[in-house]
Design goal:
By secondary structure, the protein is an alpha/beta fold. Helix content is 46%, strand content 15%. The chain has eleven helices and eight strands. It has helices spanning 3-14, 37-51, 62-66, 70-82, 99-112, 126-133, 159-170, 185-195, 212-219, 233-236, 244-264; strands at residues 18-22, 57-60, 90-95, 117-120, 139-145, 176-180, 200-202, 227-231. The protein has an eight-stranded parallel β-sheet with strand order 2-1-8-7-6-5-4-3. Helix 2 runs parallel beside helix 4, helix 5 (99-112) packs parallel to helix 6 and helix 7 packs parallel to helix 8.
């Protein structure tokens, strides 16, 4: 089953467009958990357990595991292995390098770690992204309009539109998507016009304060999966006591319901 087939099953079954980001930071993890590999894995698996009824997809960010060295990467592999197989996993790795290196990055994310999809950077062009597209059963989300303040340095006023048009051309296997930040909803409609029907992975709604309703209106394309709304910190750290996982589940449910409420008003 391809990434997008798995994703469609989850979206339709759960009526959810929610992507839960898994970005662990020791300083924010409840104090009662041991500061060990086992403690970190317990924290993440409990988050998965309590949010999986509301999440269409999970998205671990590789950087938060890489910083912990070998032990962190071992936790990442075990986490991905233990996420229910019917729920797809996006490896938020933001890879981008020349072709021969890109092949290794693609094999790493898709084969070594077993992710169903990946985030990549487009700066080096088609040959750098082709090794990822060559896995037709996996998803490839290309950074297009990111949510950070410095995005304006290069992406605006029009580079983001060039990226959108190019990815539309490169989407021969139908496994591409775009990363589009909710902190700039005024530009999202332009991206949609440039790329046509293609799933958007949208960060920036939770802790970064992006406008959910404006974002959904701008990103709509009439397809079954026009977008995935990502939230990380607002769910992971919804509480810091022993009921942290329950509160994370509540936060995930509330955001899923908020997304659906906005959709019903479109």
């Amino acid at each position: 089953m391809t990434f997008f087939e798995k994703l469609e099953n989850q979206v339709c079954t759960k009526q959810s467009y929610l992507c839960v980001g898994l970005d662990p930071v020791w300083e924010k993890i409840p104090q009662h958990l041991p500061r060990t590999q086992e403690g970190l894995l317990e924290f993440l698996l409990m988050i998965v357990e309590k949010t999986k009824a509301h999440a269409a997809v999970f998205k671990p960010n590789f950087a938060y595991f890489e910083v912990l060295g070998v032990s962190g990467m071992e936790v990442l592999q075990e986490l991905i292995r233990k996420i229910p197989p019917e729920i797809p996993v996006i490896g938020d790795a933001k890879r981008g390098d020349v072709g021969h290196s890109a092949k290794m990055y693609a094999k790493s994310v898709f084969e070594t770690f077993g992710c169903d999809a990946v985030t990549v950077t487009p700066y080096q062009g088609q040959d750098a992204l082709q090794p990822f597209f060559d896995f037709p059963d996996r998803g490839v989300f290309v950074l297009c309009l990111t949510s950070n303040p410095g995005a304006a340095d290069f992406q605006l006023p029009d580079l983001h539109l060039q990226v959108a048009k190019k990815v539309k051309e490169w989407n021969v296997e139908g496994n591409a998507g775009l990363v589009v930040g909710a902190t700039r909803p005024e530009y999202i409609a332009e991206v949609r016009k440039s790329c046509g029907q293609m799933p958007f992975l949208i960060p920036g709604v939770g802790a970064q304060g992006g406008d959910l309703e404006k974002t959904l209106i701008a990103a709509e394309d009439g397809s079954k999966i026009p977008y995935l709304i990502n939230a990380s910190r607002s769910i992971l750290y919804a509480a810091s006591e022993e009921d942290y996982a329950k509160q994370a589940g509540n936060a995930a449910k509330n955001l899923r319901d908020q997304i659906n409420s906005c959709r019903s008003n479109l």
